Amino acid sequence: MSTLGALLLLLLILITIVGGKTGLKSYLSIVLNFALIILVAVLIGIGTNILLVGVIFVPLKLLTIIYLGTHDNRVAKISFLIAMAISAGLFVLILILEYFAQAGGFGDQSGEELVGLSLNIGINYQDLGILVAVFSTLGAIAEAAVAMSAGMLELLVQKSDISLASLKRSGTKIGEDILGTALNTILFGMFGSFLPLFIWFIRLHYSIGRVVNDKLFVSAALIMVYSIVGVLLTIPAVIYAVGRKQKLANEERNN
Amino acid sequence: MWSKIKDIPFNKARIIAASIVAVVGIVLTLLAFFNVNGLPNEVATISGNTKPTVLLQKTTDEFEHNDEKYRQYLDIKVLTGTHAGKTFQVTNDYLASQLNTEDYKVGQRVLVSFDGAKPGLVSPKRDWVLVLALTIMCVILVMVVGKKSFLIMISMILNMVLFYFFVVFDVAENSTKVVPIYSLAVLVLSLLSLALVQGIHKKMWLTWFATIIGVFTSFLICWGVMQLTHESGIRYEAVDFATQNPKTLFLAQALIGVLGAVMDEATDIISSLSELIEHQPTISLKQLWQSGRTIGQEIMGPLINVLVLIFMAEALPMTILLIRDLNTINYTFEFALSIGILQSLISAIGIVLTVPIATGFSLLLRKGKVVESGVVK
């Protein structure tokens, strides 16, 4: 059995034991996500318009992550709407910064890997860079939205008559705790992902001036910033949405 | 509309602080844009087009992919070095795909290198964009979390600095002790970030223990699986930019990559449960365990997908290039995607195992509460 197959099987077993039916759905979402990425690659590979692929696959990926990732439909609904809104806003920021950074495509470090490959393939790699950036942030946005709304709605379940002010205070507290470490998921995910590049810089004695102008470094650092901004914006958005929901519920109860 | 905006928790002090950060950041961005010191190359600015850009050729490769090759004729004004102040004419060839070539724009700052008296374009000057991006991030950070953003920034910077030293340490040891070095990094970095962000108290220690146990348990299990399956199907040569033994590099990537997520999850579970205990001190252990599992189940999937997307999106450019060039999915999958998928799976297993581990540690939190209130009465 191949290692990949064995790990897939092990994950299936563990996730079912720990998460039951929800776990199985999460597993499905992970496998679907792998499949969606491969599908994206194939579609762009055969020449589909990159913007079109983005417009179709961003909601699709968020749906997969959020709806299959949680068993609570209320959590999923709020999270999906907020994640869509935040992604749309973030897209504008990414568009502007990528225009100036020109950090799409391959860097000098990839020289060896590109040997023997034809590079005039007719796909705009700056546009692809934007799509890669957008995709990289989706997971972080969806996760923050789900963690926030799950935490806040769980609070509503345990204490349904909670006052609006108290709900917001708790929301801010949950948000701060989640943020402090949501940043860690992103930060360490990037550390892990780009460890070979960092080792390359240090081994070849890159100066700091060279690193901060390096295409791959800038592109990685920008992706980190986009993801963090996405998570940050998600927090007040969820507090606002859940707060509004509770306000409406309170008003209804009073009437 | 205004009353709605007021519902969002931004207060006046935060807006003032954020404005200050914005002004400082914009000044720093401008300084970075105009800065010419400490760079590996000479700096120039593109002052104009000598002639219009011409289409050199339309290319079609063996798979009928059409691309266009352009030549730009640019005037560049050199700003540094022995040629400072002089204007040169340079040409720049780029493919419409801009895969590893760039389409330069007038007014842009660029890095140039000289071959004798002849300048050549090296790359766009990108450092200022990074400063601008960080400025935007800091402004939003201050708006959303206020005072705490200072701690968060310090925690991130310290993590980066420490991580840098661990990589230097690894390179200095010539990558002979990769796994021990990055294991130590896991212990130190997680303790530091949790202590900084949460403060040192019982909840933080419980979160730290849960994190460490989660990371190392899953690492050992996955390592065991790799041994049992004789690592069949793993293409270590597909690890990007490997300047050392790619196998240990891959293991180190997996260790570091999952750490943040496990920390995130342990904090989410333990902090949500402690909120719950605060609002409802009489909650039973069974209820608490159930709530912990519910929260864990909710966040487990999305959290795994955070890493899946980070690990997989990064592989997209190479994947698409290989699909385009080689037209075979199998080879492309093996070389461009399998490493990312393996990394995602190892992380996923860590994240799943952390749910019961973190919930178990939260139970200790409640026990403490009951004893405390008993003393008060």
Strand content of chain A: under 5%
| Main β-sheet description of chain A | none
Averaging pLDDT over every residue of chain B, what do you get?
84
How many domains is the backbone of chain A divided into? 1
Largest sheet of chain B: 5 strands, antiparallel
Task: Count helical runs of chain B.
Answer: 10
Shape of chain A: globular
Q: What is the SS-derived class of chain A?
A: mainly alpha
How many β strands of chain A by DSSP?
Answer: 0
SSE ordering of chain B: HHEEEEEHHHHHHHH
Please state the average pLDDT score of chain A.
88
Estimate what percentage of residues of chain B fall within beta strands: 5-15%
Describe the structure.
The complex is a heterodimer of chains A (255) and B (377). By secondary structure, chain A is mainly α. Chain A has one domain. Chain A is 84% helix and 0% strand. Chain A has helices spanning 3-45, 50-69, 73-101, 111-114, 125-158, 164-203, 208-211, 215-254. In chain A, helix 2 (50-69) packs antiparallel against helix 3 and helix 3 (73-101) packs antiparallel against helix 8. The mean pLDDT of chain A is 88. Chain B starts with a helix and ends with a helix. Chain B is an alpha+beta fold. Residues 1-6 and 370-377 of chain B have low confidence and may be disordered. In chain B, helix 5 (178-198) packs parallel to helix 7, helix 6 (202-228) packs antiparallel against helix 7 (246-279) and helix 7 (246-279) packs antiparallel against helix 8 (285-313). Chain B has a 5-stranded antiparallel β-sheet, with no helix packed on it. Chain B has 10 helices and 5 strands, in the order ααβββββαααααααα. Chains A and B meet through helix 1, helix 2, helix 3, helix 5 and helix 6 of A and strand 2, helix 3, helix 4, helix 5 and helix 6 of B.
